[in-house]
TrEMBL record:
<keyword id="KW-0472">Membrane</keyword>
<feature type="transmembrane region" description="Helical">
    <location>
        <begin position="135"/>
        <end position="159"/>
    </location>
</feature>
<keyword id="KW-0812">Transmembrane</keyword>
<keyword id="KW-1133">Transmembrane helix</keyword>
<feature type="transmembrane region" description="Helical">
    <location>
        <begin position="166"/>
        <end position="184"/>
    </location>
</feature>
<feature type="transmembrane region" description="Helical">
    <location>
        <begin position="218"/>
        <end position="239"/>
    </location>
</feature>
<dbReference type="Pfam" id="PF03773">
    <property type="entry name" value="ArsP_1"/>
</dbReference>
<dbReference type="InterPro" id="IPR005524">
    <property type="entry name" value="DUF318"/>
</dbReference>
<feature type="region of interest" description="Disordered">
    <location>
        <begin position="1"/>
        <end position="22"/>
    </location>
</feature>
<protein>
    <submittedName>
        <fullName>Permease</fullName>
    </submittedName>
</protein>
<dbReference type="InterPro" id="IPR052923">
    <property type="entry name" value="UPF0718"/>
</dbReference>
<feature type="transmembrane region" description="Helical">
    <location>
        <begin position="28"/>
        <end position="45"/>
    </location>
</feature>
<feature type="transmembrane region" description="Helical">
    <location>
        <begin position="313"/>
        <end position="336"/>
    </location>
</feature>
<feature type="compositionally biased region" description="Low complexity">
    <location>
        <begin position="1"/>
        <end position="11"/>
    </location>
</feature>
<keyword id="KW-1003">Cell membrane</keyword>
<feature type="compositionally biased region" description="Basic and acidic residues">
    <location>
        <begin position="12"/>
        <end position="22"/>
    </location>
</feature>
<feature type="transmembrane region" description="Helical">
    <location>
        <begin position="57"/>
        <end position="86"/>
    </location>
</feature>
Length: 337
C-alpha cells in the first residue's frame, strides 16, 4: 500500500479557502471603528469644527481643491490624449534635436495650455513617458501655468493701471522656466528623476485605454492634490495677518515674504493675480515674486511632483526653482517695474 503525502496548502490556497489572515489589519474593520469613534465623540467633534480656526481651514482647503480640480482634470485628459493617441515620433519631429534648443521651444509651448500648475504636472509626465528630454518637459512644466493666455489676461484685469505687470510676469516666468530646463540638462542626473509610471493597457482599444488612463491619473494626482491642499489650509489658518503688515515695510523682506506666502497659499495661477493685487501694501516687485513663484512651486505642486517624478526629484528641483524665481523676479522687477 502506497501512502501519498499531500503538500501543505500555500498561503494563497489558505486565503482562497477562506482561512482568516492572521495578524493583518482589515481596512473595512478600521473604517467601522473610525465611524463608531466619530459617532461616540460627535459632541467634541462638532465643537471643534465650529471653531473659527477649523472653519478657516475648511474654507481654504475647499477653495484650493475646487480651484485646482477642473484644471487637474484638464491636464489628465491632455495627458491621456498624448499617451494614447499621439505617436512617439510626433515629439521627435516637433521639438529640435538639440536639448539646449528644445528647452526654449517647450517653454514657449507652455503658452498654449489653458490651465494651471495642476494641469501641467500630468502633461509633463506624459511628455517624459513619450521620450521628450526631461529638460524640455520641465521647462514646459514651469512655463505653462504662468504664461498661458488665461493667466496673462487675468493679470491684466487684476492690474488695470499697471500693464507692465503682464509683461514682467511673462518675461520673468519664461526666463525661469528655460533656465531651470538648461540647469537640469547641465547638472541633472537620470537617477534623480523617476520615470512617471504608466499602467499597461494591453488588449484594450484606444477608447478603453484612454478612459483607463484618465481614471488612473485622476486617482493618482488627485490624492497628492488633496495632501497639498490640506497642508496649505493648515498653514493659512495659523499664520497671523500681522506678520504680513510688518514684512511689507522692508523691501528685501517683503519680496521673500510674498514668495514664501505664494508657496504656502497654493493658489491656482488663474486666481493668484487678484490676490496679489489685493496686497497693495507691498511693492510691485514683491507682488511680481508672488506671481512668478506661485505657479512654479507651492505645497500642492510639491506633493504632485513628488508623486509623479519621485521625492528625490522634488527635493532638488523645488528649492532650486524657488531661489531662481525669487532672484529673477527681483531683477525683472527692478528693470521693468
Amino acid at each position: 500500500m502506497t501512502t501519498t503525502t499531500e503538500p501543505a496548502p500555500t498561503e494563497a490556497g489558505r486565503r482562497d479557502a477562506g482561512e482568516p489572515r492572521g495578524g493583518r489589519f482589515d481596512s473595512s474593520l478600521g473604517l467601522i471603528m473610525l465611524l463608531l469613534l466619530v459617532v461616540v465623540a460627535q459632541g467634541p467633534v462638532r465643537r471643534a469644527l465650529s471653531a473659527p480656526v477649523a472653519q478657516s481651514w475648511m474654507t481654504v482647503f475647499t477653495a484650493v481643491v475646487l480651484q485646482a480640480l477642473p484644471f487637474l482634470v484638464l491636464g489628465v485628459l491632455l495627458s491621456a490624449l498624448i499617451a494614447v493617441f499621439v505617436p512617439p515620433s510626433f515629439f521627435a519631429r516637433a521639438l529640435p534635436r538639440r536639448p539646449a534648443v528644445a528647452v526654449p521651444v517647450a517653454g514657449m509651448a507652455g503658452a498654449v495650455l489653458p490651465g494651471c500648475e495642476c494641469a501641467s504636472v500630468p502633461v509633463a509626465g506624459a511628455l517624459v513617458r513619450r521620450g521628450v528630454t526631461p529638460a524640455a518637459a520641465l521647462a514646459f512644466l514651469l512655463s505653462a501655468p504662468a504664461i498661458n493666455p488665461i493667466v496673462l489676461t487675468a493679470t491684466a484685469v487684476a492690474f488695470p493701471r499697471q500693464p507692465q505687470m503682464v509683461f514682467a510676469r511673462f518675461v520673468a516666468s519664461l526666463f525661469v522656466a528655460c533656465a531651470m530646463g538648461w540647469l537640469w540638462q547641465r547638472l541633472g542626473r537620470a537617477d534623480w528623476l523617476r520615470p512617471p509610471a504608466r499602467p499597461a493597457f494591453h488588449g484594450h482599444g484606444k477608447g478603453a485605454a484612454f478612459w483607463a488612463s484618465v481614471r488612473h491619473d485622476v486617482m493618482h494626482a488627485g490624492g497628492f492634490l488633496v495632501v497639498g491642499a490640506m497642508a496649505a489650509a493648515t498653514l493659512k489658518a495659523v499664520v497671523p495677518a500681522s506678520w504680513l503688515r510688518g514684512a511689507a515695510d522692508d523691501p528685501v523682506v517683503s519680496i521673500l515674504a510674498l514668495a514664501v506666502l505664494a508657496v504656502l497659499l497654493s493658489i491656482c495661477s488663474e486666481a493668484d493675480a487678484f490676490v496679489a493685487a489685493s496686497l497693495s501694501q507691498f511693492s510691485l516687485t514683491a507682488r511680481l515674486a508672488f506671481l512668478v513663484v506661485g505657479p512654479m512651486i507651492d505645497l500642492k505642486l510639491f506633493a504632485m511632483q513628488t508623486g509623479t517624478f519621485g521625492r528625490g526629484f522634488a527635493l532638488r528641483f523645488a528649492p532650486a526653482t524657488f531661489v531662481l524665481a525669487v532672484l529673477v523676479s527681483t531683477l525683472v522687477g527692478a528693470v521693468l517695474l
